[in-house]
Sequence to fold (237 residues):
Amino acid sequence: MNQSNRGFGLIELLIALALSLVVVLGVAQIFIAAKNTYVSQNTAAAMQEDARFVLSKMIQEIRMVGMFGCLGAVTDSSSAGDFNASQTTPISWDNANLKLTLVTADVGGSGGVPTWTVVSDCRNNATAYTGVRVPGSGELAFPIRRLIYSFSNNQLLMGVGTGTPAQAVLVNNVSAFNVSFGLASSATDVAASSYSSNPTDPARIRSVRLTLTLTDPNNRVRNQTFNVVAALRNRLP
Fold:
């Protein structure tokens, strides 16, 4: 009884290897595509989180611009006599140097040492002092901070204080940062009717538009631009 045993021939082996290679390459392509999608989504989410953090912080502070306590008239007793000037122009944008200056009430008193503190009895007297000031009996203390946001070297920075304070980095990989102001047609109008990056009359400012563009240094996702508009709650002088 004859019995022949055959194995794989060379051609069959080559075909099997080719088919296996095609399958492996297909799985590898799926894995690489899934990994790239995961990385790009994480990168985009991180950029959105950075923008959300910065812009929500700035919106909160812009809304409190011009809030200097419960009385309109405040006596300047600061050590350098610099509160009145900041009270007159509590918000400004230096388009040449890309700097946004805000004089704003410190919401909740959680922003560190204030630039000034306005102490008032909310009836007759309100006085601004430099730094921290403990209110007396029947008085309230309103911490006020002067904030300077600036855009430089692909970074958005912030400093607190008078003059030119030291600045800390808020977010990196910023390719553009712009500010424009919603202006009313007159100081008595409520709604903004036009926008300008250099308003001549601060009393006409009703809102602030912030535009922030973030970039990925590794080019995994395209640049993302974020726009927000914050309304001023306090009428400027």
